[in-house]
Amino acid sequence: MRTLAIAGRRPRMRLGCEVCEESLAALGRRCADHVAAEAEARGERTASCVRFYPNGEFRREPRVPADLETWLEYNRTFRPGNSLFVEGRCAQRGAGFTDEDCSDIERALATGTPWTPRR
Ligand SMILES: [Zn+2]
User: Fold this and answer.
1) Cα of 23 to ligand 1 centre, how many Å?
2) How far is the CA of 110 from the centre of ligand 1 (A)?
3) Higher confidence at residue 118 or residue 23?
4) Residue 54 Cα distances to 13, 14, 26, 36, 78, angstroms
5) 18 CA distance to ligand 1 centroid (A)?
6) Each residue of 29-85: pLDDT tens digit?
7) CA of 33 to the centre of ligand 1 (A)
8) How far apart, in whole angstroms, are the C-alpha atoms of residue 86 and residue 119?
């Protein structure tokens, strides 16, 4: 979200991350992805957070400890289909995932092997 000051118009307040411009109200100057990337660049530890989609795709989304609860709460509310793993353990089983799926994913994360949905 880039805001240009145009003569005669009042500039809109900018609420997105100043790096990726992801638009999230009241998030501050960086989105949680970039806060974590900067913490890692300083050598600070972040929580290992991984999002799995029902089709087996996944995305690593490390979080600084202060952002962890917000990540879980946001996803429980708005992304109920995804399963979330923190430090290799299932923190939220998404709709459509079975307990067996989550055990399989935990094993895959521990061994560094891919997970393929059985269905
Ligand atoms: Zn960002």
Assistant:
1) 9
2) 28
3) 118
4) 37, 34, 30, 25, 15
5) 7
6) 788 899 999 999 999 999 999 999 999 999 999 999 999 999 999 999 999 999 999
7) 6
8) 24
Q: Cα of 86 to ligand 1 centre, how many Å?
A: 21
b (16+ CB within 10 A) / e for 41-57: eeeeebbebbbbbeeee
Give residue 62 CA to ligand 1 midpoint distance, Å.
Answer: 13
Map residue 58 onto helix, strand or coil. Answer: strand
In the reported structure, the alpha carbon of residue 111 is separated from the centroid of ligand 1 by a whole-number distance in angstroms of: 30
**Pairing state of beta strands 58-60 and 83-86?**
unpaired
Tokens of 61: 């989304």
Tokens of 53: 């989609």
- Other C-beta atoms within 10 Å of 62: how many? 20
How far, in Å, from the CA of 39 to the mean position of ligand 1? 13
Confidence (pTM): 0.80
Distance CA 99, CA 84 (A): 13
